[in-house]
Amino acid sequence: MAEAPPYRKSESLELPEGEAGARLPFCPGIRSEAEVPLEGWCSGRGSCWNYHCCLNDVGKALLCRASSSLFKDMSLLIRNLQRAIPIRRVPLRKNIEQIRRILGVQQFDLGVICVNNRHIQLLNRNYRWKDSPTDVLSFPFHENLTAGELPQPCARGEYNLGDIFLGVEHIYQECEENKEDFYSILTVTIAHGMCHLLGYKHSTETEWQQMYEKEAQILLELNRLSDTNLQPLTKHHF
Prior knowledge:
CATH architecture of the domain at 74-226: 3-Layer(aba) Sandwich
Strand order of the largest sheet: 4-5-7-6
CATH class of the domain at 74-226: Alpha Beta
Oligomer: single chain
CATH topology of the domain at 74-226: Collagenase (Catalytic Domain)
Strand content: 15-25%
């Protein structure tokens, strides 16, 4: 788990050599057409990275969005940039949509990107200075967030929560080790990441308590809707 990492101005995402999602000159995070995955996604906060949606055939279309207003009908974008772990999109999307409704943020765009260990480790090293894989990194679109308060956009292009990078390979390995259900933990991890996008942190015990209570509230309602028994990711953080 990780708090929203700090951005470095004017910096674009660099992927390891051979990683799915290579760099094209006009698309940060994409290095060569040959290595563009079936569903490429490079993203970040508007002030630092441009948004790009790399379609299956790069030769046909490469849509670049500098603001979310180009995607008014695509408020939830899920991209899978890894092949280590199969991802079932239908239940994943259903759970994310339920969490969005519980939080009351359906009107905000959200990006969820699934990556492997190498990719999440690169992000973790570049933005948190920790050279190891992790389960989730959240990149809020808005600055100076107050936990418990929704962002107050001034324009349509600002109706954006940001992006959640899921280290699905790392999550799967931990689930195997702890004998836990992968999709249950994936759902809990997404709820955790969305709390970070809304300003919640766990750097201190006071912050952790506030974030833990919010996660518990989300999962209590989700458990009621889906007949599950999900527990907050930060349960034993302090």
